[in-house]
């Protein structure tokens, strides 16, 4: 199998003058992009980085970050991207944990980086808008082309190390090989029916598996990657319109923000023919709105993770809302009883259980970085215990109901937040909804709905709506909280732990509850 350096080189040889990447006014053809990434790879080697070393990168989605990613693939360096919103202590932890040999960053995190203790004497690379004593500017790093082609990697080398979000405890490093990354990119192309000359929006962060997949998939098909440094609905709509973006691959939250923005219109996004989402379930209500607004030829629900990129896909997401479809091209999926230690006992059809994935899949990682206790918890008999819950319906489609940690046990009954959210999301007055379990002396936990309202609506009306939607009585919320915003992570995932900890702003208030 090709490594990723050869993957990009093949695209350069096929279509050297095709647009490869755009970032505002900056635009590179594939030939120009190859020369740029080779120069960056040469600069990294001049700094002393060698095959197998880790380069920590903390940047927004700018062309320089994409160039560093590809340069590492040529040089055999393991790119280790972090959230640009990370605090100094979080960056310090990852520098030490990854044993990074150099760091690269931009203005978005320069303040945090200046406070890091672990940087020490490590080589630092900064974008040209950052002034830092002793650091090398990106333009200086990329000033010299190599004397001959830099192509150091092989398919079995490590390509990158992602860090999980760390919802409990310290984040875990997820190292992934070139062959797994290429297999995931190829599957992404096939499962989303991409063709040559596609244009995608590079707005999902390049420290996240969705962002990386968009970047790599475009190289596989000689496609065009349009950088959006950070998500802004107005800028995103302008980029879709001006670049003629043909496909979108976003978390549901970003679709919601696009549709809600005053600048959105069907005409301005008419070039988009393929819609994909991942990272979190899309509520029934939002799915209906997205389908109506974009009228896509293809609407794909993609279910996966950093560890095993693709679990399942459903290429007709709007046909059966909530369904994550069937196992993907490179994967096998099972649902086992909650609490099971073995992957060999299957839950019954319709029975909610724990979702597990075959570690022999082409896209799978091989274990966490220096975390044997995490491996012992998640890797059992050749299967990855995802931490997600779900069930197979009678037609064999998988429905993901949430995280094991999010499951609400109320009065002895198990309630999935997703079921309740789907019911409430279809009410026209509900802009957004998140459901969590709050401690209760009588019930253990009570189902609580946190609502961002689009227009006035009261609890009684929402209860009646739940009843008419067919939601089981024990699943209906016993409490409603109307909030200004639903707390989310940097990539748009609902932070239920923030709701449980009462860190939110009640509608009409100005300070957190």
From TrEMBL:
Domain AMP-dependent synthetase/ligase intervals: 11-369
Family of the protein in this entry: Belongs to the ATP-dependent AMP-binding enzyme family.
GO molecular function, one term: ligase activity
SUPFAM superfamilies in the cross-refs: Acetyl-CoA synthetase-like (SSF56801)
Gene3D superfamilies the UniProt entry points to: 3.30.300.30, N-terminal domain of ligase-like (3.40.50.12780)
Keywords, sorted A to Z: Ligase
Alphabetical list of PROSITE patterns matching this protein: AMP_BINDING
Alphabetical list of Pfam families matching this protein: AMP-binding, AMP-binding_C
Annotated InterPro entries: AMP-bd_C, AMP-bd_C_sf, AMP-binding_CS, AMP-dep_synth/lig_dom, ANL_N_sf
Residues covered by the AMP-binding enzyme C-terminal domain: 420-493
Stated name of the protein: AMP-dependent synthetase and ligase
């Amino acid at each position: 199998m090709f490594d990723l350096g050869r993957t990009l080189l093949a695209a350069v040889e096929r279509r050297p003058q095709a647009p490869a990447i755009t970032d505002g006014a900056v635009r590179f053809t594939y030939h120009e992009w190859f020369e740029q990434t080779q120069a960056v790879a040469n600069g990294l080697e001049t700094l002393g980085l060698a095959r197998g070393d880790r380069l920590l990168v903390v940047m927004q989605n700018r062309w320089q970050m994409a160039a560093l990613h590809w340069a590492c693939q040529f040089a055999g360096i393991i790119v280790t991207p972090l959230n640009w919103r990370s605090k100094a202590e979080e960056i310090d932890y990852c520098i030490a944990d990854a044993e990074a040999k150099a760091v690269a960053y931009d203005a978005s995190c320069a303040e945090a980086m200046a406070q890091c203790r672990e940087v020490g004497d490590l080589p630092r690379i900064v974008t040209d808008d950052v002034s830092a004593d002793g650091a090398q500017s990106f333009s200086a790093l990329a000033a010299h082309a190599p004397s001959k082609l830099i192509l150091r990697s092989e398919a079995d080398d490590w390509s990158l190390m992602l860090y999980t979000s760390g919802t409990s405890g310290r984040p875990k490093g997820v190292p992934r090989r070139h062959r797994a990354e290429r297999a995931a990119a190829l599957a992404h192309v096939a499962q989303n029916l991409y063709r040559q000359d596609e244009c995608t929006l590079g707005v999902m962060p390049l420290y996240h598996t969705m962002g990386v997949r968009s970047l790599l998939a475009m190289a596989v098909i000689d496609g065009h990657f349009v950088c959006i440094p950070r998500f802004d609905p107005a800028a995103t709509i302008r980029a879709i319109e001006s670049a003629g973006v043909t496909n979108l691959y976003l978390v549901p939250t970003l679709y919601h923000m696009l549709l809600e923005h005053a600048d959105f219109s069907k005409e301005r996004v008419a070039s988009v023919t393929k819609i994909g989402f991942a990272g979190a379930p899309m509520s029934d209500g939002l799915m209906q709105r997205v389908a109506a607004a974009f009228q896509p030829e293809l609407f794909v629900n993609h279910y996966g993770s950093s560890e095993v990129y693709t679990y399942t896909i459903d290429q007709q997401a709007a046909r059966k809302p909530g369904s994550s479809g069937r196992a993907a091209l490179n994967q096998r999926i099972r649902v086992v009883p909650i609490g099971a230690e073995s992957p060999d006992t299957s839950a019954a059809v319709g029975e909610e259980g724990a979702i597990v994935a075959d570690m022999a899949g082409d896209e799978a990682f091989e274990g966490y970085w220096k975390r044997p206790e995490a491996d012992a918890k998640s890797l059992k008999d050749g299967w990855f215990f995802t931490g997600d819950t779900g069930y197979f319906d009678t037609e064999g489609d998988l429905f993901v109901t949430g995280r094991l940690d999010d499951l609400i046990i109320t009065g002895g009954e198990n309630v999935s937040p997703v079921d309740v959210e789907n019911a409430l999301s279809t009410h026209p007055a509900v802009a957004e909804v998140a459901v969590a379990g709050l401690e209760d002396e009588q019930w253990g936990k009570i189902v609580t709905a946190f609502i961002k309202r689009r227009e006035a609506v009261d609890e009684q009306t929402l209860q009646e709506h739940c009843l008419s939607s067919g939601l089981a009585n024990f699943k209906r919320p016993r409490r409603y909280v109307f909030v200004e915003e639903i707390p989310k992570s940097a990539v748009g995932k609902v932070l239920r732990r923030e709701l449980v900890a009462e860190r939110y702003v009640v509608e009409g208030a100005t300070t957190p509850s």
